[in-house]
Amino acid sequence: MITRDKVGRVTTAPTHERLRSQIEFTLEIDKLKRILRRNTLVDGSRRENDAEHSWHLGMMALVLGEHAPPGTDLDKVIAMLLIHDLVEIDAGDTFIYDTAAVADQAERERAAADRIFGLLPEDQTARLRALWDEFEERRTPEARFARALDRLNPLLANFHTEGGTWARHQINSAQVLRNVALIAEGSETLGAYATELVEQAVAKGILAP
Amino acid sequence: MITRDKVGRVTTAPTHERLRSQIEFTLEIDKLKRILRRNTLVDGSRRENDAEHSWHLGMMALVLGEHAPPGTDLDKVIAMLLIHDLVEIDAGDTFIYDTAAVADQAERERAAADRIFGLLPEDQTARLRALWDEFEERRTPEARFARALDRLNPLLANFHTEGGTWARHQINSAQVLRNVALIAEGSETLGAYATELVEQAVAKGILAP
């Protein structure tokens, strides 16, 4: 049976073999729902997991897209955000202020990308891996905007949970402002907004100066 | 200050006023993470919530898109799936086999859509509401494919958790096959696959005939 892949290329692999791999991948990524992040939900009730976090970032791209540089492909940003944390199924969540864990993070995550994207049919492995690499390399407007949302999200959560991870891990405003710089790289407006939030957080006493 | 919205129209609302509404919406939808569905994660460890479910459906659209009818706009499908359950923040999750709850579901969900999408700037309220209405009406290939994934997902979860909600709520194969019909409406291949799964589930004794 002749089938066509998403971009219309004819592929000789039978549909059921492709589908089998795709379903296997679909079941495997369910594990992302069990990878916990450091921050909590906005109501503080429990820690957030990577899957719901990825959904939230996709929604942020949908409603904050106008603050990306003109011409940014927002559909690509959304796809990037949906897949960006899949590697944490194997590599775990790395707390951005944990210097030791950050050191070998890239290596652990590359091995995870090989295994997880490798579950898919070859053409899809290549396509999703390229998207994840693009996100990691942060050279395109899409990758920079996706990263900006990924950094803005916990800042919002911390601001609205009386300091959240900042308070629990003794993070100060200088450390947070290094992340805000990444937000500004992806979106001038959101960078300015994040800077304002940090100033307000310091003024409110929920973030050390 | 003159700004442009996502589709490039000039809007006279100042950026900061739009941004304020968008951030308020972003914080409000965090509540979707606390809306629990009937089914569990694939490992059976706990019930799934709407936010992580929506992420999973977005991922399914990304990897199963080739099984949609040719010409289906998959980016639109993904956006639809990200927002499709937001109304449950107010209306709650309605179990598809709960006839009483299904009766006034549409009304409860419309009121929720008014409030939740209404938090956004007007042009975005209209855009997301139209997308949600399209999903609900199931008249376009995008809406039908999105619905097919929304129905396939719990079927997969139940199959891989020894019957899951089927077993707990005494659901039989005739009831499940009515949902499979919705899958086939959105994707011939996925409909055939789902039918096979139901047959296998009955043969394995994890679904009543």
Automatic annotation (TrEMBL), chains A, B:
Key word DNA-binding present: no
Protein source organism: Bailinhaonella thermotolerans
Protein name: HD domain-containing protein
Single Gene Ontology MF annotation: 5'-deoxynucleotidase activity
Keywords carried by this UniProt record: Hydrolase, Metal-binding
Database matches in Pfam families: HD_3 (PF13023)
Gene Ontology CC annotations of this record: cytoplasm
Domain HD: 29-180
